[in-house]
Amino acid sequence: MFNKNSFLYQIRWFAVVFVIAAGLMIWYDLTGRRILTFNNQQQWSSSGAGYHK
Amino acid sequence: MENSKPIMDHCPECLKIVPFTSGETNFVKCQCGKIVERRLDGLLYLHKDTFFEGGTAAIQPGSTGHWDNRSFRITGRIRVWFQEAVINYWSLIFDDGSLQLMEDAYGMFAMLKKADLPQSIASADIYELKIGSKRSLERSEDFVLEEKSNVHKWELEGEAFWPEFPLNTKVVDFSSAEGNRYLILQGSTLKKWAFDYYPVILHELQLGNLRQPEVKPYEFSCHKCSTKIKVIAYPYSSSCACSQCGSWYYMDPKKGFIRGKENNIDFTPDLAIGSKGFLKGIEYSIIGCSQKQEVNIYKSKWREYTLYNPHEGFAFLSEFDGHWIFIKETEIAPVLLTEEVKELVVDGEPFVLFNYYKYTVVSATGEFPYNIFDNEETNVKEFISPPEMWIREKNPVEGIRWYAGEHISKRVVKNAFNPERGMPWQAGVGAVQPKGYMNAGKIAAAALVSILLLMVLNFFIGAGKLKKEILNETFPFSDTLNSISYVTKKFDLEKPFANLELHISAPVENSWFELNATLVNAETGKEYSIAQGVEYYSGYTEGESWSEGKRNEDAYFFAIPKGKYFLQLQGVRDMSFGKPREFFLLVTYDVSNSRNMWIAVLIIVLFALGKYGLSQYYEYMRWSNSPLSEY
């Protein structure tokens, strides 16, 4: 399918980048995350080490 | 070609029965050594035996095969010697007794099917037509005269057909842009025979009963230095050079090898003459190498290696600035109806004119098909679509030849021939070196398709989201307090990981509101906190009204694991004049998020732009070797 004479061979890097982009999107979407977000969500665990005001 | 029954007749020389096995053939070798020709009037004529020079081909009288859903057997061949080429015409007898010729030229094969002769050329001497002349040949397309040759010598093996006595037959080849070809044989009396020409791939003929081809080199002593010169692919190699003194030789069909001018011998090919290696699954021997130079202001020099395999014929390796191209002459080729053509489309792929030039041979060693030393008038055009190219050579006398080229990596060439001298250093970008080139249209199309696919994926992911409402409530402030605290009931979050969206709305007017929200896992005590402000300011300054901020905001808890949770909320307001009297909060679990999709789209767009930029740079480098560069 990806032999050197086929159109698919020409777009092989496009395919790789698409798979990476789509994979990121799917993983972030399905786990409720946002790509490249540095939000102010903080976490504490009452059972673990750490400080809680 | 209608008489399919064998004719029993007696040889005029020895009176033995002439071994014709088909009524369609008209030349056969008798046991007495004479060649018997049977003419239309039924009379038999005798010719001297023709000694078959050189080695033997894999195909032989008695070989069988299939074409056009019919089986055939091969009865023999007539090999004709043109000025610069030696070509076999095999006679094929099909199951129904009909006869057809098969051309076998330097590893290219074609079926010749008898066709009606166009009246417009019936009485003309078509050999007088110039190479490149156009004729409609009474068909709905224009044909270009691509090649014309005169038979200087002929040989017979087995039993074969040729329209009349072969010597001095003119063979003229017309091709149309639609891919049709037409071969016309013209006898010495101007009588003509027309054939439709169908290029075929040898292995598709399913040939059987083949013999092991025998290479029988032709040896002669250099006329100048007496060094023994061995021509391996004789008689198909029509020119050669002495490895000792550099004298050039070209073959005359009647006189043999004739010495031409002297060669520049200060040249040692990187790939040694005589070395063998596999390319494209075929074992080739390197039998020659010439160094050619463009006759123009650039004076570019490149090397061309002749590759030979007795089964597959000839191929070439071209090397320029350390970039290699594998080249093979081909019968299935484009046709240029005018010389103005700047772009060819072959199988939907556009090939752009990259270079045009005349050339001269600077130095040479080994042997070569055709005479490479008389090509100063040959115009070469190169059309490229990396990694492939088409090369057209047009000579006013020899005609038009097409070669298909394909980039081949330095590593593949090195592995195949393992040169002791090492490989030449690479510089720049080769004419058909693949650099992942895609034109702007293809890049845009690929990016668009990728983006559409991302949108479709995002739609389906969004459709699968729960969008479960956890809280939908308005919280009024009491007049004197600036904050509200509230704890929700416990609720279940079912998914392994999902988000929680907080849509906050507060009627702020030149004031602010802030919500502090803590999501607490009721089972583990784990807490997630966020703070989100809402502020809106407006006014009228220096004749202009202005505003900033907004009255609603969204905040998110991300990647919240499955569990039982509750929310602790604290709303704090500004106590100034425009303080909000209430705030509204909508909490939704597992919502879709187009932001991730837009970032994925951005990745695709950035890649497409980068690809385009890099392609432009590589094309600039590639076309720096072309007089037609637009970069």
Q: What this model shows, in words?
A:
The complex is a heterodimer of chains A (53) and B (631). With 53 residues, chain A is mainly alpha-helical. Chain A is 43% helix and 6% strand. Chain A is rod-shaped, with a radius of gyration of 20 Å. Chain A starts with 6 loop residues before the first helix and ends in a 9-residue tail after the last strand. Chain B is mainly beta and 631 residues long. In chain B, strands 1, 2, 3, 4, 5, 6, 7, 8, 9, 10, 11, 12, 13 and 14 form a 14-stranded antiparallel beta sheet that branches. In chain B, strands 17, 18, 19, 20, 21, 22, 23, 24, 25, 26, 27, 28, 29 and 30 form a 14-stranded antiparallel beta sheet that branches. At the A-B interface, helix 2 and strand 1 of A face helix 2, strand 33, strand 35, strand 37 and helix 3 of B. Strand 1 of chain A pairs antiparallel with strand 35 of chain B.
Sheet with the most strands, sense and barrel status of chain A:
none
Report, as a whole number of angstroms, the end-to-end distance of chain B.
58 Å
Largest interface: A-B, 34 and 48 residues
CA(first)-CA(last) distance of chain A: 61 Å
Task: Give the count of helical stretches of chain A.
Answer: 2
Helix and strand composition category of chain B: mainly beta
Structural class of chain A: mainly alpha
Q: What average pLDDT do the residues of chain A reach?
A: 76
Percent helix range of chain A: 40-55%
**Weakly predicted, low-confidence segments of chain A:** 49-53
Average pLDDT of chain B, to the nearest integer?
91
**How many separate helices of chain B?**
3
Number of strands of chain B: 38
Q: Can you tell me the overall shape of chain B?
A: elongated
- Assembly state (oligomeric): heterodimer
Percentage of helical residues of chain B? under 10%
Content of β-strand of chain B: over 45%
